[in-house]
Amino acid sequence: MKKLFYAPRILFAFVCISLLASSLFGQSTAPQSTAPEQSVQPAPARSDTHVIMISIDGLVPDYYTEPARLGLKVPNLVKMKLGGAFAIGVEGIYPSVTYPAHTTLVTGVRPAVHGIIQNRIFEAPTETQTREWYWFTKDLKSETLWTLAKKSGLVTAGVGWPVTVGAELDYNVPEIADPKERSSPKRTIQHSTPGLITDALGLGAGSDNTTDGRRAKISEFIIEKYRPNLMLIHFIALDGVHHEKGPRTPEAIEMAERMDAYIGRIVEATRRAGIFEKTTFFIVSDHGFAEVKKRFEPNVLLVKEKLITLDPNGKPVDWKAAAWPAGGSCAIVLRDPADKATAAKVRSIFNDVASRNNGPVNRVLERKDLDRLGSIPNALLMLDAAPGYAFGDALTGDEVTEPKDYRGTHGHLPTRAELRSSLIIFGPGARVGAQMPLARMIDIAPTAAALLGLSFSDAEGQSIRELIKPGLIPKAQASKKKSKGAKE
Ligand SMILES: [Zn+2]
């Protein structure tokens, strides 16, 4: 059973391609020391070092492991992969959705610990549905890369990174939308470092006035002007295309190529800033993608079973249990967590659904499974979608629908192969030519911290030694017991 949730830490393969790598991007690849970590003198923080983490939302790893097979032209991803180190896939967290995953990427712990347990905050069916997400750093319960870096006097920046509204980043343009409006930069401007967007964009974003186009331009500006030690950048458009058209479709391929161009621009900005040689890039994603055709509506079933009561107009007036869906997963929440009768009824309803032939539910995850996964603490249980299905939150209508323009989703168990996310490490901190079959998302933040000379005191994850140069892990981290928190 354990194996389902925690893939064994697999031995890395070491590929000797450093000769090829040395000319890529012109970054020098000095011969690597094989000295053990213990011999390194601990340094408080490496103020002459830079880490830029670029998240391409929903980037599936085969876009950089097998671009030719997909007819994909991503020269920057390929250069970074060949000139750096990479994982063929990354096992994420549950639910495998954007906000919990991005928070794991900067904390090294799972959602139940860092507090960002879903994208959207739960609202009871009888409440006003604001549909607000976890935008605010105040909801975050763990130390982050930027709090660590800041404590050590390093310069920090974030552009479009989830859950950074109110974050103590020196230069911050957080991600925040208004659920009532389709696209509004008003809230972003209101919560960004005063004057920063105006300074960066000047009279406008130029020919590419998309959200990601603006994020790229603002990032270039911050890098050139402020040379942050730690920078977090999040590009979102690929995720949207994957949802609408599906992964690996012509539209997705075209968008992935645009993402690659943004990465190239960020790398070029570090050259202009004079920090290229000192910058290690982490190219990451938050989740993979599963193809989907149908949507299952758990709340429609809960209405039928009288666990949600609607008035004649279809407005909820009472409830005992409700669905809290996120694409390929769906939490079921009880109004009264101590209500054993409702809990038993809910279990019976969804176990029946899971036992249907070719039904919409792959499996029902009970509390003990969820605790092991560090997932949503207030869920009675969670549903993992069957192949081809996603979950919705409609209260009325058909139990199963086939929506148009909804061909990809995520949120499922991170152990599912199609849900694997991405990791490339490129720059002076990378162990050039190294690759590993499967990295863990919880290990990425401790690895980025290590390159800056920093250590988390409470992360479950550990530095990925296989992918970074020997000797870079700070003594405090290197001496930490390997068993801490890891359930292997
Ligand atoms: Zn995402």
Please explain how this structure is put together.
The chain is of the alpha/beta class and 488 residues long. It folds into 2 domains: 2-289 and 416-487, Alkaline Phosphatase, subunit A; 291-407, Gyrase A, domain 2 (2-Layer Sandwich), CATH 3.30.1360. It has 17 helices and 20 strands. Strands 1, 2, 3, 4, 5, 6, 7, 18, 19 and 20 form a 10-stranded mixed beta sheet that branches. Strands 8, 15, 16 and 17 form a 4-stranded mixed beta sheet that branches. The protein has a 4-stranded antiparallel beta sheet with strand order 11-12-14-13. Helix 10 (211-226) runs parallel beside helix 12 (250-272) and helix 11 runs antiparallel to helix 12. The N and C termini lie close together (12 Å). Residues 1-23, 28-43 and 481-488 have low confidence and may be disordered. The structure holds zinc ion (ZN). The site of zinc ion has 6 residues, from loops.
| Anisotropy-based shape | globular
- Let me know the CATH homologous superfamily of the largest domain: Alkaline Phosphatase, subunit A
Radius of gyration computed on alpha carbons: 22 Å
**What is the second-level CATH architecture of the largest domain?**
3-Layer(aba) Sandwich
- The CATH topology annotation of the largest domain reads as Alkaline Phosphatase, subunit A
Helix proportion: 25-40%
Small molecules bound in the structure, each named once: zinc ion
Question: What's the number of structural domains?
Answer: 2
> Total number of β-strand segments?
20
